[in-house]
Amino acid sequence: MSLPRPWAHARVLAIAGSPSQRSRSSVLLRHAAGILRPRGLNVGDLGLRDIPAEDLIEGNYAGAAANALRARVAAADAVLISSPVYQASFSGGLKAVLDLLDPKALAGKVVLPIATGGSPAHLLALEYGLKPVLSALGARHILAGVYATDAQVRVDEFGVGEIDPEVRQRLEDSVERLSEQVLPRGAVLNESYDLGRLALAGGFSV
């Protein structure tokens, strides 16, 4: 029996900066979200395809899609942001999405940036490209970013990825730190313990 945990109100928004579900950065983003969901966090997804291309190109700040984007970001306690690196910079599509946010949209939120690129040198795009933009949007609690090279994330024709063990561990460590920030102190994630605690509290009868 699955019961809502008392801390399940905590919300995380996962923003994909690639239009492809088969991109390596999307694989890492899905893996991170998959770790958080069993912990009782409400994880939502948002990608470039959720916003009309015309709105992104024209920067339609007043459009319905932009309003919905800002509302979802405002409701989140934490934000995961992933992007492929092209020409030593994070994706233009992601920049177009971030340009639709309010100046302090990320204030008070925990942010985990994730990126993939062709070589280790492109790590600088995460540190000196994406993170300053996140800071400009008010983010003050930016976790250490997770960067992987293309060789460290392999994707099959169905979009199922195989992640290098070292990258997987770094990603899981970062997700652990994120969950510690948004879950109430002392929250226990053991299902049998949760059920017993709710029973004692009169939440249900056994």
Automatic annotation (TrEMBL):
It is an enzyme of class 1 (oxidoreductase). GO terms for biological process: alkanesulfonate catabolic process. The keyword Flavoprotein applies. Residues 11-150 form the NADPH-dependent FMN reductase-like domain. Keywords: Flavoprotein, FMN, Oxidoreductase. GO terms for molecular function: FMN reductase (NADPH) activity. It comes from Achromobacter pestifer. InterPro entries: Flavoprotein-like_sf, FMN_Rdtase-like_dom, NAD(P)H-dep_FMN_reductase, NADPH-dep_FMN_reduc_SsuE. Its EC number is 1.5.1.38. The gene is ssuE. The keyword Flavoprotein applies. Pfam families: FMN_red. Belongs to the SsuE family. SUPFAM superfamilies: Flavoproteins (SSF52218). This is NADPH-dependent FMN reductase. PANTHER family: FMN REDUCTASE (NADPH) (PTHR43408).
